[in-house]
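Example (one chain per record):
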Amino acid sequence: MAPIPPRPPGHVALRRGRASESGRVYFVTCVTRDRRALFADPILAHTMAEALLDRRLWPRSRLLAWVLMPDHWHGLIELGAWETLPDLMCRLKSNTARHIRFALPLACQVWAAAYHDRALRQDDCLLSAARYLVANPLRAGLVQNIGDYPYWGAVWIDGVPPHTRAAPPHRLLQTAAAPL
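Predicted structure:
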């Protein structure tokens, strides 16, 4: 019997040695399975946004900013105590997929298996990362003004009802910074 060839480097190799750090902010990206533009459908996009903002999804961690694009989702997440990023992402993907399938029964998977994450360094400007994240619809040419795009949010927005926020302002936010 021939030996099993080694796996080529990939997602597993990238994750080896990584540790989830509570209190750390992560820039996370999840894509839909086969990059299908599921969230171009307003019903699915609205359902995803509602599922994402459900406080039960965030018992320990905090969603600081997010944007939903037609075929992917970006989020700035502050990881809470006693929680790992893989556990949080598993919960996020399964709960949002369940809500989406309930709203519009799909015969396909919603999310691709993997996700991309980048831990922000302590000296990274959190507000700059949030601005970059929520500007995705502008860069993609979906809208001319971010206020015209309905599927995004951030905890620093004035005038947003507190119950729609996923978390209070982050401790790293510079007080002199301009609002998003």
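Caption: Residues 20-155 form a domain with the Alpha-Beta Plaits fold (CATH 3.30.70.1290).
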